[in-house]
């Protein structure tokens, strides 16, 4: 016997029960260890930060990460999954700063780095309980007991080892470069971090500035324009950078127009006249860009009066500039755009990458009048204010001096800090770099060896990113992170990179080793040793490492490679590279990249073989979820209502992995109502009847006389083959959809067509075959869905298999994944059955068109438009179709036109036409009435709450016509409704459940009572 299964089901309740069962039987661990010694399947867990609560996008990636290792385990792979936590970096520091009410780095330093980092350490697991609970609740199987933690000394030590490897290969350098800088966080960002924070439609000033040329240098074709002021017009959206302007760049081969504006001449590219609304201005002449090159102009502000240091750039470095020099040249460069602006580019070497390069090349002045908090320094307009607040003040000062031609606003895309939403500023700064550009070809070539899902990411988003590779700015001027392991001599500036703790300890004159060991700031900053060159002291540079580097180093750092002896075999035993990783699409420039870059630079090979890049998750209306919009859907809410399986199934099948998807409680609810209920009802139907008939699985062989049984088993095996192929191709979406289609066949055709076989089969062998077939379908389905819906799969397996001792495994997750029996696949039969389903649905439409009730039997139906093969296939299934259409006989014709409209109601779908004979004989009318009565009695049985096997007495009171019909069809009615007797007259007995109906104009009172 199976445990009874209610058709009313609470999936969340079942899941809580299954969670207890898994814990009690230690199923996750056993599912892994059972396969030990087999080929490994390695998942790398992209580490989340537990200082914030998990959201629905975390559930999304966890679901996709879970399904593959579960599948591979059932396919026989050894698949330990190590969890991980990202614990360093700006995100953590920011939360602590917020809690302490800090506004800048000064606040932190006043508070003390040791205290601050202690707070950071405490905060990183603030929500770990929430994470663990949700991880368990969604059925994400991952080893959290042995999770790697990026702030552990061992993890940091491997990080140092990685830097040292790169250092030894000449791939680490400290550069003075213009980098994106967050003035609030006081640190540089790497280019992949910048990519995370672009905001569209940002309002900024759009200012056109006039730069007055010194007339002394105007010769050749320009000599004609010395009669009044001659100015070059340049455009900027960052007026705050204007005090740092030290050159104007033009395109040497472009043509420039000289406009006579009355009191002055204005110059801009001819190509840009119209865009700037100056095409109607009077043109005094045209000159080539090369004639402008070499001119000198008057600076907008004199830097030597401003109180900020002024430098001269050169290829060998920066030197202090002398007051009195005048050098503000017009230069020719290849970066002058004719897409926007005026064709004359304002150049400020401190605030732009190409500007800086020009500065070095042309020996320009370098003026940096903004501090690291983004405030204007010196005596410039807006001094002491944040640059964006200083913009209008600087513009105003220039306007007062008639140097502004136009002052407007524009809306454009601008980068913001991805953590704190402060606008980023481009600053020339010292920073540590990994020279990824030196291995660009390898990065691109190794990417070719990775399978991307969706595939277009490979050469699209990720490939483009690699093509446009820039060196990785991997240091941060911050506190809570892996320290940059570089020590520098305070006397001769010689530097060392340290690759491990023992190496550091072995240095001469070593002091300051922290007890207990803590490789964080400020302790590690205390460690010093003797310089081997000059006898000075080696002290650590103060920077820490970007947390993207930490997570990118996880393949080796999680094993404490190469320090732990066990770690040294990762390249041989399948722990490296990973078979599979999966995260959101935003990680193409984050974790996916940092893994790929470090692996390529360290080991010359890719770090992962297969990667699913998941699309964004939006709310029901397709809008981004955010706290401010108030449309955040909490995963717990939906799970508590519909269960984790429903959430998993929805996320896994609603749209292709790479697509943007919508999420809401309602959308998940639809999954429960459609797919899960269908499956559950089929399962509950089976258990109900199997228990009545005392069916015992596994004792009898299939008797495949039934076409239906052969067909559904063919479909089942086809499904197994398809799901296996899909999952092998990392496509759980296609696999899930195939399962859905099968469950629909199983429920809406196989079970529906087989109902009578379970109930009152003519032969025991046929009934047994039906039971065996449905049992096999359900058991194999439970295994097929196990990686997707681990709870429901377990529930069904426990009742149908484990509870009966039918198989040895006491959990579905310990089973092998089903193998397709190719000999059971009959494509011809499948084709015929699909055609039969189609013919039935077309036939039902024809009935509906004639407005004939479904229970009214009709004489015949005719099918037209079939090929000879199709027809002979359908002839074998004629009984099933006739029953579906409730007709006495099914006919075929090659000529659809032969069906007269008087006699037949016809509907076509493609080539297939079905005609339904509309003519009703008195006998058919009687039979229709009997079917309606039978249906009402069945309804009363349900109302009375009888079990389906209970026998009853049926009472009726009606007119003479119906009485005659009841007598003529009594035997049929009795058999269909399990009535021992049919009694004319409904006695006044409270034990009888009775109701009066009006059927085809006849009133009839019906009553039922259970017989004892
Ligand atoms: Zn920031
Ligand atoms: Zn030295």
Summarize the structure.
One of its GO terms (biological process) is isoleucyl-tRNA aminoacylation. The protein is α+β, with helices and mostly antiparallel strands.
Describe the protein.
By secondary structure, the chain is an alpha+beta fold. Among the domains are: about 200-415, Valyl/Leucyl/Isoleucyl-tRNA synthetase, editing domain (Isoleucyl-tRNA Synthetase, domain 2, Alpha-Beta Complex); about 485-540, no CATH class; about 620-655 and about 665-805, Isoleucyl-tRNA Synthetase, Domain 1 (Orthogonal Bundle), CATH 1.10.730; about 830-920; about 925-1010, hypothetical protein PF0899 fold. Helix content is about 40%, strand content about 20%. It contains 32 helices and 37 strands. The strands form 11 sheets. A 6-stranded mixed beta sheet has the order 10-8-9-6-5-16. Strands 4-3-17-19 form a 4-stranded antiparallel beta sheet. Strand 23 and strand 24 (about 535-540) form a beta hairpin. Helix 13 packs across helix 19 (about 590-605), helix 24 (about 730-760) packs antiparallel against helix 25 and helix 25 (about 765-785) packs antiparallel against helix 26 (about 790-800). The chain starts with 10 loop residues before the first helix and ends with a strand. The relative contact order is 0.09. The model has no long low-confidence stretch (mean pLDDT about 95). Bound molecules: zinc ion (ZN) (2 copies). One zinc ion (ZN) binds near residues 489 and 491. One zinc ion binds near residues 182, 420 and 422. It comes from Dehalogenimonas alkenigignens. This is Isoleucine--tRNA ligase.
